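Anyone up for a design puzzle?
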């Protein structure tokens, strides 16, 4: 195999990026024109995020000295750096002015959302952690399961306090899938599932009056008129339903005229469904399933267990994020407020996902 060959997952990613630019323009042009004087405002900013992400992608895929095997040595450094950035979000002088959560660092030319990059740094470190374990150690609760959970817990604290529960959920599920794929005992899996159920139950009980609790209440009681979250869910379903089988046509959405909240980020899949209909929505969903299939294929052919776990973790994180977005817009799970990978507006998400695809290509090249 030529080392210059691109894996199909790369071409699929480029397809999603190109489609995303069209969808983003349609979903954001009205708000961009009214608030910033240009229908191209959000697309221009997204374009610079895509350029930055592609730059890092090509660095990861073209420089032989940056193989994923060598980058493994820096996995702890990347995680510590990411953790420091998470903590910096809580400093008032650095946080985004007017934001309702401490998720962003406000830099001179752009804003950074450090939690998005945990899909890379945390997965890299935990993949290295699992790969370093012997067959006997991997079956030990004391040597593997407890340290694994402690690492996740330490990272989860600042993410939970931001708050960014949806990203935390995606990270936990992705890390659980990695752990499960490392041939760990079934008893470990049952312990993790039990802890997850207890954690989610406690989260709902103790945060029922917060935005987290209101989103869950809106999911189970969507007809209430007291919750803004319930109205957002209704508008998403109305937007999807109005598209019918083949949609109303590109850039002809009526719901983006301030009926649908966050139409260019958290709810962009609803706009896709309205303009391209059921057929278009199913096609986009299929592309993410194909992304998962390709990513798992890379994991199966990886040179070593570290590459396999890393590919599984990255693929899981991106795919789970995609379907959490899709399911929440469809009303199948509570509103998540997370972007659709490669499509929604948000430079941090785009850059993190492209780094992930760069690592997948890196693993494929070095298999």
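Challenge accepted. My sequence:
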């Amino acid at each position: 195999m030529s080392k210059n060959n691109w894996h199909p997952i790369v071409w699929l990613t480029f397809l999603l990026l190109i489609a995303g630019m069209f969808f983003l323009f349609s979903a954001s042009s009205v708000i961009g024109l009214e608030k910033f004087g240009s229908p191209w405002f959000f697309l221009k900013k997204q374009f610079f995020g895509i350029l930055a992400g592609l730059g890092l992608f090509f660095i990861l895929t073209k420089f032989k000295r940056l193989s994923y095997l060598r980058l493994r040595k820096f996995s702890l450094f990347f995680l510590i750096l990411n953790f420091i950035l998470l903590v910096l979000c809580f400093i008032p002088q650095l946080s985004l002015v007017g934001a309702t959560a401490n998720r962003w660092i406000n830099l001179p030319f752009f804003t950074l959302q450090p939690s998005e990059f945990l899909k890379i740094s945390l997965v890299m470190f935990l993949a290295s952690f699992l790969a370093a374990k012997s067959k006997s150690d991997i079956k030990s609760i004391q040597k593997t399961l407890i340290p694994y959970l402690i690492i996740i817990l330490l990272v989860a604290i600042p993410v939970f306090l931001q708050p960014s529960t949806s990203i935390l959920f995606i990270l936990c599920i992705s890390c659980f899938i990695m752990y499960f794929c490392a041939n760990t005992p079934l008893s470990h899996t049952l312990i993790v599932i039990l802890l997850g159920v207890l954690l989610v139950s406690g989260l709902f009980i103790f945060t029922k009056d917060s935005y987290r609790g209101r989103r869950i209440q809106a999911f189970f009681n969507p007809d209430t008129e007291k919750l803004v979250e319930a109205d957002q869910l209704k508008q998403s379903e109305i937007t999807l339903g109005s598209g019918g089988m083949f949609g109303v046509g590109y850039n002809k959405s009526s719901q983006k005229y301030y009926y649908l909240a966050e139409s260019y980020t958290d709810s962009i899949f609803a706009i896709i469904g309205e303009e391209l209909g059921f057929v278009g929505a199913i096609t986009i969903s299929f592309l993410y399933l194909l992304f998962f299939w390709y990513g798992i294929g890379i994991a199966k052919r990886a040179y070593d267990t570290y590459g396999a776990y890393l590919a599984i973790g990255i693929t899981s994180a991106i795919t789970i994020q995609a379907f959490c977005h899709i399911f929440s817009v469809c009303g199948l799970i509570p509103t998540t407020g997370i972007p659709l990978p490669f499509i929604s507006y948000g430079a941090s998400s785009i850059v993190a996902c492209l780094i992930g695809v760069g690592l997948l290509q890196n693993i494929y090249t070095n298999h």
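A detail worth pointing out: Residues 8-365 form one domain.
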